[in-house]
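Q: Hi! First time doing this. I have a protein sequence and I read that you can turn it into a structure. Is that right? Here it is:
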Amino acid sequence: MIAAVAALFVLAMAGLWWQVFRLSDDSSCGLALRGAELQQAVLLLGIVCVAGLSGFVLAVARMRRGTKVLEHLVNERTAELVAATQRANQTAQDKAQILSTVNAFFIGVDASGKVCEWTSQAENLFDLPLPEVFGRTFREASIRWNWEPILDAINRSISTLSTVHLDKVPIRTHEDRQRFLKLTISPLCKDSGVEAVIMGEDITGRLVLEHDLAQAQRLESIGQLAAGIAHEINTPIQFVGDNVRFLCPTPSPACWPFLTGIGNS
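A: Yes, that's right. Below is the predicted 3D structure, encoded as structure tokens:
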């Protein structure tokens, strides 16, 4: 609109100068007529100027209203983004708190094989802080276990979209102590590809308890067997002794040592 008003203003100025130029060249006989035309041109110029000024003011007002609307939209969008960011941070904190209460550790491996999740339990067990492993290839992590079955299980889980279980996985800790882990590898489908989520649990204590329980059960079985054998041995001896006393109500002195031995047994 401003361009149209400027064009009208230019045309009016050109018409005015044209009339002035004609007046300077014409004779005095047409001076009155040319004066009337000049007055019309000036009047037209004034109308164009007023219209241009009005259009300029209207355009400025529209620009201000548009600026205010744009600022309002930007503020609303900024507030929405801030709220979304706060919700995302709160969700991440809640997730971290929930995972921290679980005894198991979680490791996330993306489609390119890089670590994208590393919980605090994993930090404590492997003695590897999050900055040292996050964004790096999982194979580069200095974990002292047999990598071949672990990587094979991850590939099978991603390729078949199924859960893979690994039980009694031996590992050497940073204290050079052997532990045993139970791993569950599950696929996670995302827009960027298929990721693998490794959930692990230290089952060393459970295996020790199972070993002690099995040992106790074996000892209990041996004790029951020994008691049964002793019972089976003692019963016929007692039977023989009782019948010998019945057959010999008044045994001779020579039989007393034998009967005494049987009775004591």
